[in-house]
Specification:
Radius of gyration: 34 Å
Largest sheet: 8 strands, mixed
Number of helices: 8
Low-confidence stretches: 275-283
CATH superfamily: Mog1/PsbP, alpha/beta/alpha sandwich
Mean pLDDT: 83
Order of helices and strands: HHEEEEEEHHHHEEEEHEH
CATH topology: Protein Transport Mog1p, Chain A
Shape: elongated
Structural class: alpha+beta
Helix content: 25-40%
Number of strands: 11
Number of domains: 1
């Protein structure tokens, strides 16, 4: 019997009654988690902190001026007014206005490149004429934007014409600025967004539209009858540029409509004498 007990004791496994390992305290786990979080935050700020500040600034600008979040849509209302009107000619181009109540006594030239056309209804039309690529040259003259960066981001097309650069600016929105782009790209897009905020005229809050008019392409800022009473149309070509500003008198008898604006744009062409001179000039 004693031998049997000895054998059972010898068969007993070793280590069954070892001391358990001490558990990590909650406080230590919290400290480790905080350290990891701080380390990850420091890494993020090192690589993306500057760009994140740019993003927050862009979002703030969008809250203050929501129109910068708008991108141009294609103009779909293309009907043309057939109301009795009058053919006019300025700056080597001619067009038709769908109104016959032009007030010649108040219509006048303002400087070398602006004409104010007044109507007896109280409405008015201002026409600004400019040279090609004037907008491109003015933007590139700013030392806050690098032309090579702009070309890398948007291609050579963005700087090929005023129309292309306008489109690039108008299509820039706060959503297109992210923390994960390079610092240089973030700064360039932020600058474009700021320029966009400064070039948008009154009435743009009601819509921005892309359009074509003969040799011109451009954009319409605002819908007719918007609260500001103004609609601007900026047109660009390889040889010229125009800015038409329509002003609607509040409560006036004649309401400016989109077909009225289309009548002017779709009849805009070079005056015959200028077109003949261009055709005869050597290429």
């Amino acid at each position: 019997m004693s031998n049997h007990l000895i054998e059972r004791e010898e068969a007993a496994p070793l280590g069954d009654y070892g001391v358990p390992a001490p558990r990590m305290s909650t406080k230590v786990r919290i400290l480790i988690a905080l350290f990891v979080l701080l380390l990850l935050s420091a890494i993020y700020l090192w690589f993306f902190g500057f760009q994140t500040g740019i993003v927050l600034g862009a979002r703030y600008l969008a809250r203050k001026k929501p129109v910068v979040s708008m991108a141009p849509a294609q103009l779909t209302e293309l009907s043309i007014s057939r109301s009795p009107g009058r053919k006019l000619s300025y700056f080597g181009y001619e067009f038709e206005v769908p109104w016959s109540d032009m007030d010649d006594s108040k219509t006048k030239m303002m400087g070398d490149n602006k004409e104010l056309i007044a109507f007896q209804s109280g409405n008015s039309l201002s026409i600004w004429h400019g040279s090609p690529r004037a907008f491109v040259n003015s933007v590139l003259s700013n030392d806050k934007i690098d032309p090579s960066t702009l070309r890398r981001m948007y291609g050579d097309e963005a700087l090929s014409s005023d129309s292309a650069l306008y489109r690039t600016l108008l299509e820039t929105t706060p959503e297109r600025i992210t923390p994960f782009m390079s610092r240089q790209d973030a700064v360039s897009r932020a600058f474009l967004l700021i320029v966009k905020a400064t070039i948008l005229p009154r009435g743009s809050e009601s819509g921005v539209f892309a359009l074509t008019a003969g040799e011109f392409s451009g954009f319409q800022f605002g819908r007719p009858q918007n609260q500001s009473g103004e609609v601007s149309v900026r047109l660009f070509s390889d040889s010229s540029s125009f800015n038409f500003i329509f002003y609607q008198k509040p409560g006036g008898p004649n309401v400016i409509s989109q077909p009225d604006i289309n009548r002017i744009l779709q009849t805009l062409r070079r005056a015959p004498s200028l077109a003949i001179a261009d055709a005869k000039s050597p290429k």
